[in-house]
Amino acid sequence: MGRSLMKGRTVDYSDVQGLLRFGYGKMTEASYALLRVKNATAARRWLGNAKVTSAVRMDSPPTSALQIAFTADGLKALEVAPEAIAGFSAEFLTGMTEESRTRRLGDVDRNAEGRTELLSVHLVVPRPMGWFYHDTFAHPVHHLHPKIPCYHVYRAQTHLDRRLGSAAVVSKFGIAWLLDTTRRCKLYDWDRHRWLRFDGTPTTEPIAAVRQGDCRRLEHGAALRTST
Q1: What phi and psi, each to the nearest 5 degrees, are found at residue 62?
Q2: Residues 6+ apart with CB under 8 A from 110
Q3: Cα 194 to Cα 200: distance, rounded to the nearest angstrom
Q4: How far is CA 157 from the centre of its chain?
Q5: What helix, strand, coil percent values describe the chain, rounded to 5?
Q6: Phi-psi domain of 120 (left: phi exceeds 0; alpha: psi -120 through 50; beta: other)
Q7: CB atoms within 10 A of CB 176
Q8: Whether the Cβ atoms of residue 88 and residue 135 lie closer than 8 Å to each other
Q9: Cα 113–210–163 angle (5° rounding)?
Q10: What is the pLDDT of residues 171-213, one digit of tens each?
Q11: DSSP 8-state code for residue 90
Q12: Nearest residue to 221 via CA among 132, 120, 83
């Protein structure tokens, strides 16, 4: 018995932002403006006149682009119909500041006063290993500016380490470091802020029991040499 062929829909690229189609990999700089909607009517008027760069293909690529994104709260402030907002994913509706999500991403304030470049570890690995893994171990700078491409991350992280000085959380990869970390960092106790073995035995002191300056390193499992 014959089957009807699936028919694809024609995409209206004039109604799609260009970033989704082109990525704009050759644009190496970005500027962000974080806005709060106070007047829904004025905001909708502004949006209607904004020169957003669409996904329509041009004869030559644009040298700059305007793209706009919204949070769920922003859509509510714009008075978008509740049934339309309800159609978005649960992750979008709860937002990036939902407690368990910020914890899983590591985007929480760990004695860093909200400074995102201090929230994870720069694991220094041999350069061939870094090239193979696209320098994903140079991670703090990614928190600072997620749009830095992989091929610039190492250089950007090295520059950031110099700027941060002693505040940078840096560990050097090695067999001893790997064995020690995997031995002690198995489960994390979020109530007492300490690492545990699988049987529940603590392998580090609670953060409250160590010096203030050691807290970031303890939670990240980067430099687990606790002070007594």
Answers
A1: -70, 150
A2: 118, 119, 215, 216, 219, 220
A3: 11
A4: 15
A5: 40, 5, 50
A6: beta
A7: 7
A8: no
A9: 40
A10: 899 999 889 888 888 888 877 888 888 888 898 888 654 334 4
A11: H
A12: 120
Tell me the C-alpha distance between 62 and 64, whole Å: 5
Q: What is the pLDDT of residues 114-162, one digit of tens each?
A: 555 555 788 999 999 989 988 988 888 887 788 888 889 999 999 988 8
Contacts of 84 (CB under 8 A, 6+ apart): 75
Instruction: Please give the share of the chain, as a percent, with pLDDT higher than 90.
Output: 36
- CA–CA distance, 198 with 187 (Å, rounded to integer): 6
Q: What are phi and psi of 54, to 5 degrees?
A: -90, 180
Measured distance CA(201)–CA(37) in Å, rounded:
49
Given the DSSP bridges, would you call strands 194-196 and 187-189 parallel, antiparallel or unpaired? antiparallel
The pLDDT value recorded for residue 112 is 45
- pLDDT-derived band at 18 (thresholds 50, 70, 90) equals very high
Over residues 87-108, the pLDDT tens digits come to 999 889 988 777 666 655 655 5
Q: Which two structure tokens, joined as six digits, stand for 73?
A: 């709260």
Beta bridge partners of 172: 124
Dihedral sign for Cα atoms in the order 211, 217, 220, 224: negative
